[in-house]
Each structure stands twice: as structure tokens, then as C-alpha cells.
Amino acid sequence: MVALDGSSSSFGDAAYHSSMNVLPISNSVVGCASTPDGNGYWLVANDGGVFSFGDANFYGSMGGKSLAQPIVGIGG
What we know:
Blueprint: E1 29-34, E2 40-45, E3 50-54
């Protein structure tokens, strides 16, 4: 589970791999997607910024780029 400030929480047997609330972010985090093995996740902000944790690979992001519309979620 993720909040707008980038803080994340884990429940049950889900692993916690850190969150963005320890670093300043300029836009709201709007989604979270788990890696297929469940050992990592990506957070996405409404400006297109992508943040990877655990074994989630970083493939790039749209943070700082001009978007026609804000990002509203992420699929996994």
C-alpha cells in the first residue's frame, strides 16, 4: 500500500523494501506495482517519476518531461 507522500506499508507476508517518504519528492505518488516474484515494487508519481525498490529494475521514467495529462496509476 502506498500513500500520496510516497510512504509505503506492507501487510501479511508482503515484504517491505523502503519508500519515498525519506526523500523529498515534488509530486504525489499515485500507484504501486509489484514485481512478478513479489520481492520488489515500483512507485509512480503523477509527473511520471518512477521509483524502484527491492529487485524491481529501473527502466527509466518520465519525471521532468512534459506530459499531456498527469499519470493516475500503474499496472503490473
